[in-house]
Amino acid sequence: MKELVEMFLSYLSAERGLARNTVVAYRDDLGAYLEFIAGQKIDTLSKTSRGEVTAFMLSQKEKGISPNSIARRLAAIKTFYRFLVRERILKNDPTGLIDTPKLWKKVPDTLSTNEVDALLAQPNIREKQGMRDKAILETFYATGMRVSEVCGLKTENVNLEVGFLRCIGKGNKERIIPLGKKAIAAITRYISSSRPRLLKGKECEYLFVSRSGKRISRQSLWKLIKQYARLARIKKPIKPHILRHSFATHLLERGADLRSVQEMLGHSNISTTQIYTHISKDRLKSIHRSFHPRP
Hints:
It contains 13 helices and 3 strands; from the N terminus they run αααααααβββαααααα. With 295 residues, the protein is mostly helical.
């Protein structure tokens, strides 16, 4: 069964072009499923039925796994079985009649514009690392890019003269995102002064580099955001995508159309982008309660 999972993961990576982190998530989800059916004394996927899949989902619920994680695991299992049927390894798909549960979409955490300003003001631009960090934070907020996308941003894909960058997102999908004046200024300063000192004569195709002159990691960016949020005395829970969420929310609050924001975020489905409209509505309700004479 593990060999079939590896075949499926190779298909996701090579043919569908899914990102490494996405493939790893599929591996984890399917690994949990295989472990469960092995515990049921089932040694081949052809012996599995709708009952085993349903029992697995119930076992996940009993373990306290979140509804979102359970739904994601079911989606992975369904995609896996469809692949096996299409490749004629299995005759029937036991998940065909199992519906994916409808979940409430959680409104993501965002920062206010004042909190963003405070966060972006924290790096010490007199130091080479602070200069880099300032460019990173400005890029995050100016483009709404994912953490992995900022890590993977190549120097050749940034056009500071025109004020655009080319982003390679999930599934190797490409999108063009504008850069604001402050982000352009921060990146220009970083490239001309800080980056050469970090590289120390080495070469790297990626824009943002670590102190060792290599591509900066996702973990480093995550720590960087948390560090500066703490210095800015931001009390909200800080998550990797908080600047991405803030970017989308602030654009919509100021009248940007949903389709444009969808394109800049790289969402394949506009329903994913629509969640940010709920944040705007919540903010309007809060303003109404605070200032209306009869709230």
